[in-house]
Amino acid sequence: MHLLQRQQASSFFMIQRWTKLFSGIMVVGLSLLTSPSYAKPSASVATYSTSPSSIELATQSNTLAQMEAQVWQQINQQRQRHGLPALQLNRQLSLVARSHSQQMAHHNFYSHVDQQGRNHRRRVEASGLRAYLIGENLMRCKRINDPASVSVSSWMGSPAHRQNILLPEMKETGVGIWKQGNTYYVTQIYIEPK
Fold first, then answer.
1. How far apart are CA 145 and CA 134, in angstroms?
2. How far apart are CA 51 and CA 70, in angstroms?
3. Would residue 39 be called left, alpha or beta, if left means φ above 0 and alpha means ψ between -120 and 50 degrees?
4. Fewer CB near the last or first residue (10 Å), C or N of the chain?
5. 30 near 71, Cβ under 8 Å?
6. What residues contact 133, with CB distance under 8 A and at least 6 apart?
7. What predicted TM-score, i.e. pTM, was given to this entire model?
8. Phi-psi region of 141 (alpha: psi -120 to 50; beta: other; left: phi over 0)
9. How far, rounded to the nearest angstrom, does the alpha carbon of residue 44 sit from its chain's CA centroid?
10. Could you read off the pLDDT of 58-94 as tens digits, one per residue?
């Protein structure tokens, strides 16, 4: 009986160990897709050049500018419903978000990692902004009349995207939308500034 109990305990700890390992792998996998990026206090920040055209990237149209404003307003409504303060709109973050949406549209990809291999943290830091916490939500909408509302409702229905929206530490945001044919690319970036 004692031997059987030891084998059961050994099996239990082995299962527990594999569960922890597996859940760690899942968390790492999710962090590449939707979870916020945390700054390491001792890490040095690399700088990346950004072309002047991406820094001054204007909205594609008045309609898309209105959609960007709608995303920002609807996100703040969601935060208000959960007792959180509104996110301040940061123009520079909006330029970074718009540039990423434009790149995805022009180069036909859909990812948090751009064509230069930079994730959302590296793109934000390349613009000169510094943050403890950076999150990014993406949406690609095809043949949809209201991409702003569809993006926000989809993000709220996804636990990892919802976490970015409802993190109390997030203080600022930027929204960028680009249209290619009948497809809208929506990028929203959230930060806790340094």
1. 29
2. 28
3. beta
4. N
5. no
6. 36, 37, 38, 39, 167, 169, 170, 190, 191, 192
7. 0.72
8. beta
9. 22
10. 778 999 999 999 999 999 999 999 999 999 999 999 9
